[in-house]
Design goal:
The structure is a homotetramer of 264-residue chains. The first copy, chain A, is of the alpha/beta class and 264 residues long. The first copy, chain A, is built from nine helices and ten strands. The radius of gyration of chain A is 18 Å and the shape is globular. Chain A starts with a strand and ends with a helix. The model of chain A is unreliable at 29-36 (pLDDT under 50).
């Protein structure tokens, strides 16, 4: 297994970005010294997104992703999303969605000899990263075959129509306006995953399959139930799971592996 | 000498940030093995800022900063500025100026046992980082005693009054508006280092001394000459140097060491 | 919390070494932006040693050490032991024991402003790292107040008197001879932790307290029981725990936290 | 350009090793945002070895290797050699030569899609790394087409026949015995690059071409002249250069680029 830290000049973000990766390229046996590692190429890939206020280290530090990477023989790439909700930000010329959904996939496929097939490519995340997985998975159906979305921060309907006095304890109107654009129009804008899904269906794309999980005591449970109904009504292939739990690593560690088993 | 990579939860940016550091804490002699390193505490510190499109690696990869750190026995901290011009961005709730000028100084002083005196603390940078060094050096005169500004991107007067059709080959109106706020008011706003200097003088602060260098063929030479006249007219202690050269690492490598010698 | 990667010139190993660290120096609250992190200095410290074939990443990747570091407010340092059993190797002029037990403690205490008291300093490890924790904890009683040893590879009596035909599936005679010296004399040599304990008692040192845990199905259980009897017969303050389990991360993750609770 | 840190489980060293890399996989233009990076695959590769007491950071910190990597469009891999002289050490079961000359080449070729041809593969180093480049270049002629050896520590004839009282200010008899084996037989042993060259010629291999450079005031100048005569007398294709200088980075920075130009 390789633990890799990558820093490269991103065109989509117009600056150098940091990505961490785990690539299960070898198996070191106790019993004998073989200098030739065992490689299986091309590999499947998992793009794994962190939550609000985190960075590329979160999954490494708080989950057993290294173990899962080896167990399921899948390369894992963890970028830093910088509170962007993994959305393009035209105002600041920082195209996070293009970075996650297009550039990073292209970069890592060539750099690490990954499978070029969307059916071998998974996007997953928790909270803000769950939003990012859903958004970018459906925005780039030719790149991703599967989406795993845990406790997703599907907050579009919570922030719509808010005015400048809004602050929900996490962030203020200013931040939401910066991230999602005009909040009066956000529901119908291309920052809303529902719009992305409908647009993608209209274009006749083969849509990725979706796995959603959320804790019944999570403060985002209703938002996840709503989106579940939304994808159901649009005939998106999906699995929806609820379990006891709140918005924490215990829940995410409990549901990441079933999500992977569903996807692989 | 220690090469250190730090990732910590920044309050000012509301997320985990990456900083690289070189700390000349020991001298390993060939002649004998001594397990007790030689420490000199508290240490002087240099905060070293990269240019537009770069990150915390730039100075490490393209300059001889490791050698200079050892030669002048000074701890060097290199943060990532992410095309922010090291300015607070209220709209996105990302306070880069507070991060560079206040939080990072406080964090590193306690974490690494640095000198608490502004006279032992230098802020320096190139291009966008030169702008950031000037801006934050004068905004936080109690934290920094010296500023080294190389080929500084003092572009306020270039972007003022621009409208939405503006694009100067580097970035567009949208980006400048995002970064500097309303361009019609930018000259009189607190994003203009001149305003910061004047405000700081008014408050009766002891101002840091400034070292400026710019290449005579640099596309930013006139902007640097203007700011030189500005600080001159405001009786800021400073040294201004011009030399043959353009906007490249040859120039920055030529003038960083004289800047350090001036500062130390 | 800070995740830190340190590379510094070690005198004890005569080359640059890599250490990873987690330092719980701040708490970032959701509710408000405070640029001044909360520091508690001087901090307690835990030196955490990996097993055979591992490196400084193991504890980061396979345990919840980041969570524990924050929960118990203790700085954690993870060096790379390179199959050395954390013993001095005079033949290769690589003094791993001095590195772990003396230099790294001195280096990190000054670099990160740690507590200078042995009662605030813990050494811990698993398997080969459990051996290293016991060996260096008792060799440097003035540096360490507590030892946590999980599934320790206390193999001195397994390798004594072996000849050149020996190979136990893990490594050969050659490796053991290289690491532990003359196997005919190893039991009475200063590579045997028992000798270190007895020497330290003779010198009148206040000995660190010891916490040992081993799985009842671990292939090293008898070796751990023997050493338990040894410390018992020498009146070393210690806690000895057995639990269901084998030589794996499930066991180590189960017993690290109780070990820390015992130590703190 | 990508700066990459790799930590992977080496079979040859039976533990996790750290390698740094620079891979010039993209060119980020100022003028436009293109999300699709420009890749040229398969790439040429340079394995770049540090000197005694260094590690994988040395070339990054003290040379302009990042600039050269981009300029000549070549992937650069910098492993840590840990005072091993890049030789197999049978006694400690740590096979550094196999690691450098075989495993790392195989690992990086598959991991990063490098050219499989020896003519596209260069091994280079300074001082101890120059020794390692020569030794492993000639030991693995099917892997490397070109060798660049700067100020090489070709010390076999300096340490032969030394006894236990030997210490040359750098290291003692014990270390040399550990690293090179029996010093009475070292000249005729497979730790001597001359023996490796002669063996490889006997086997009928197509030998890599060699570029050697050494400063006229370097303490290793005579050793380099001797080896130059040796390869001359064995009809090895080579270029030998002397220049003013000592054993320092000024010299290595002056001769690395001409070496690369010769090789490419």
């Amino acid at each position: 297994m390789s633990l890799i830290q990558i820093e490269y000049a991103s065109k989509a973000l117009k600056r150098t970005v940091q990505v961490k990766a785990i690539i299960p390229n070898d198996v070191m046996g106790f019993e004998e010294r073989k200098t030739q590692p065992v490689y299986k190429r091309p590999m499947k890939a998992l793009y794994l997104l962190h939550g609000y206020m985190g960075n590329c280290n979160e999954w490494l530090l708080y989950s057993n992703i290294a173990e899962l990477s080896i167990k399921y023989n899948i390369a894992v790439f963890m970028p830093s999303g910088e509170n962007s909700f993994y959305l393009n930000n035209e105002a600041m010329e920082a195209y996070y969605s293009d970075f996650i959904g297009e550039e990073l996939v292209a970069y890592t496929r060539v750099m690490f000899g990954l499978s070029m097939k969307n059916e071998d490519t998974i996007i997953a995340g928790l909270s803000m990263g769950g939003f990012g997985a859903i958004y970018n998975g459906f925005r780039f159906p030719n790149h991703f075959g599967k989406i795993i979305a845990l406790s997703s921060a599907l907050i579009i309907h919570d922030i719509k129509d808010k005015d400048e006095t809004f602050h929900n304890g996490v962030a203020s109107y200013s931040y939401y306006h910066h991230t999602f654009g005009d909040l009066e129009r956000v529901v119908k804008s291309d920052k809303n995953p529902e719009i992305i899904v409908e647009k993608s269906i209209m274009e006749g794309n083969v849509m990725p399959a979706l796995y959603m999980a959320c804790g019944t005591s999570d403060f985002l449970i209703e938002q996840n139930r709503s989106f579940h109904k939304f994808v159901q009504s649009h005939d998106i292939e999906h699995t929806y799971v609820e379990g006891e739990g709140v918005h924490d690593w215990r829940f995410w560690n409990q549901y990441l592996e079933p999500g992977l088993q569903w996807a692989l």
